[in-house]
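Q: What changes when fe (ii) ion is included in the input?
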Amino acid sequence: MLYNDCMSMLIEFLEYIDSIPSKSLDDFLDRVLSKIRKLTEAEAGTIFMLRGRNPIKWLEPMSIQNDKIILLQKKFKVALKDQSIASYVCQSGRFVVIDDAYQIDKSMPYRFNANFDEESGFKTQSILCFPLINLDGTVIGVVQLINRIKNGKPGIFTRNQVDRLISPINHIVGRAVERAHAVEKIAKKNKRLKERNRQLAEHQKLLEREKARTEEAFQISINLLAVAAELHDEVTGNHILRVNEYSYILAKHLGMDQKFCEEIRYSAQLHDVGKMSVNSAILKKKGALNADERREMDLHTYYGYEILSKNARLRFASEIAYCHHEKWDGTGYPRGLKGEEIPMSARIVQMADIYDALRSERPYKKEYSHNMTYKIIIDGDEKLDSKGHFDPRLIEAFKQCHMDMDRIWKDFLDKQ
Ligand SMILES: [Fe+2]
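A: The predicted holo structure follows.
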């Protein structure tokens, strides 16, 4: 083979290696083997990759090609300990050139295994076997070429081919193989990560769905609790729903944060839940309550706190239940809290509750119009001292959103 021919073949080969898209390692190895066989005129060939870790290592055929027979691809391993040619090349890092596989000198450290020929009917003659070397100079695999066919006739592999064709490229091929292997490993890892991410997203969705269901169940439960408490009271219908909505609107106009607004929207309805623990004879008494009865009635604030404060999600509701009868001037009950001592949530629900009570018909009073109710809340009347009752900021908020409260009243009117 002429030097110039060798050079042009090598350049063509290197360009080829460089241009192969790293689709998959198998595909890459198939193409590389095919090109090496073309370079060396080999009838058949195998690329083995070194697998395993010390002390158990083996060679695994990754690409097997044969122009003569149809191969039934079999998964097999070549143990490094055996005396095969590929195993020897892998361990020694040397090139092996054999003219006739059946005439190997017994002094050689390797043997030809004729099993394949016997099973397939193929006839192995010449062999060229060389290692694939990575960047560190470590053997990562072996290329075994079988039967050189020169001008259509059986030939032999030569030292000239080794020196001019194989020696210059086996490092490059080794590195390219290692690179393709690394790319494939990364691709597989990416695929696993993508799948993992997909599963995580799926779990996240499931969790969110479960969370929404739990939240829905929670909202239903507390609504039922509020409805159950109403049955003990003179108040019925949509009172609790309206108090929720008034409280939300007032909280918004006070500039409370969204979490607070959302929380008060479902907590407000529980403000009188403690009435469940008050003697029903007192609750249903038509006439005025005596001092003992009044004391018991006023305890509904404390009972409500006791019921609700045991649950972390209902702590907010428990402070409303406890403090919604406190007054800004400190004349309320049960503890006579004053001004800022009263939680803002309770100050809001108190106004919402009073607005709804004024609008509603009761055994002892008629239903008031919105304008009448507005006037009482802003200026007070003989029964309600507005300035003593309400936080001044709340009165200002009411002035801004009273029309919304009227709309809520109309939207949630009690059925006659
Ligand atoms: Fe109350």
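Observations recorded in class: The radius of gyration is 45 Å.
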